[in-house]
């Protein structure tokens, strides 16, 4: 879905192979770490650092490809079967999310319709000549690059389970915002497990990867589904289902700059105030009748709105302004992304109101994958106003 009619106001930026010189600083508008055209909000100018002098401005661009290729070339000399791999790492939304019980271990049981969507990151893997450690880089500041990152956790887990001694150089091109309820980190972990298995000539089955992945996080096993699943337990019990909604059904994602702490949201959850709707009935209604506001229930919305009152106001404003534009408006996961299903266009107030000048915006649609293949990025996709054209590739 190609589109350039709206933009991302998030601290996400993407390296680009160009140099900007002699441009007036007034032609840009700063949002976090990105610059945007202040006259037209439908174009994005990504950058890494802008150096300003009296005579000119020069954009300094970091391009990881050269380092990736050098490392891979060293491995190529050893005739490795796969030396480089680029994978799409999509995120998810919860079409409905029921919290059904609090467990003795302190976690909560849930019942939810998870669905992969077309917004995602791109991860480049290269076999490293080193047999000592992985090296991770990213285009986003503040992302941990050590074993706090779920990508490194996943690679460590794979080596532990299989005895593999392969280490990697990884570059994460981050487009999915963090603290959004979209499962971006969980998807990265699942993608890393899949990649490691490719490099190791399929030492593990897909089912084994899914089972192991629950040790990383409750949402990770879902990404080993075919893209649509009814998830129970802590989320790690994954039941594949046929896609209940048209894959080309458009949606818009609106995430304010503030994030919701998942721990704080669950801390404020009151089970006696949750919906009483039967999740299986919700699933049947969606499969039979499609999207409607009454089936897109998220039991985490009330506590999330207590944590972040402005999020409740955002959802209400989207509902009022939509005038039937969206079949349903709801929060994904534990927040803070508000999803409008039925149109890729955000309501006009998001552009006009200064309160929302820093929100993240993206259109998306539902996505699935074929068995024994990983997710493929749509040929034309809009994420934060960009139109990168990556796809799964093996060299």
From TrEMBL:
Keyword ATP-binding: yes
Superkingdom: Eukaryota
Record's keyword terms, sorted: ATP-binding, Kinase, Nucleotide-binding, Transferase
Keyword Transmembrane helix attributed: no
Pfam families: GHMP_kinases_N
GHMP kinase N-terminal domain segment(s): 149-226
UniProt GO molecular function: kinase activity
PANTHER family named among the record's database cross-references: 4-DIPHOSPHOCYTIDYL-2-C-METHYL-D-ERYTHRITOL KINASE, CHLOROPLASTIC (PTHR43527:SF2)
Record-given protein name: 4-diphosphocytidyl-2-C-methyl-D-erythritol kinase, chloroplastic
Gene: LOC103326902
